[in-house]
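FIELD: query
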Amino acid sequence: MIKELIKLADHLDSIGHGDYADILDNLMPDIAYELDALDNHYEDNYMLESQLSSISEKAIKIKDAIKSGSMAEDWMETYIAQADLMIDNIYDRIFSGEDTPLEDMFCKKCRGKCHCDK
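FIELD: result
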């Protein structure tokens, strides 16, 4: 996107709108910073898919083991109840009917819902 903006600024210069090109040139560092911050929003969550797959696979194996007669110790039941509650909270937040994009829900910089663009 930065390359396209540079081309636009050059084009504006070439058709005699140097004042607009200068404005765009002055905004370029801020635009580049914002684009980099946007890229980092997605990079921050790169492990979620593999972690959720791991949780799913292990939960199925644990469920099958318990169904086949393995006994769960008390501390295991407590951990499973806590994990269930935490997953429920995330599920309810994501699928609560709000139109908030997922990437705006989990911003480390804003510590929760993202307000970086405001």
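FIELD: remark
The chain has two domains: 1-43, 47-118.
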